[in-house]
Amino acid sequence: MKDAKSAAAESNMAPGPNYWRRTRRAAWLVAALWAVAALLLPLAAQQLEVLAVLGIPFGFYLGAQGVLILTALLLLLLVRRQSRIDADHGLDG
Asked: Which residues contact residue 75 at a Cβ distance below 8 angstroms, ignoring those fewer than 6 apart?
């Protein structure tokens, strides 16, 4: 069993380089996926104009709503991944 002094010392320890490497990797992955979606979906909008959703051209709908929905999903993915990284390093609250 740990004494109070060693437990306090462990709780004040800063995360190590592995924690920050995993955090950076997760953030860069989500940022890259978002950038690809934000750049490629509008480029594909012209070809998607032949489809319609509720009478609205699909390309317009995808640009107006699809990127926003994808951004929210990517942020949810990042939060879940970061929670897992925090838990792996004993930083979950």
From this structure: 30
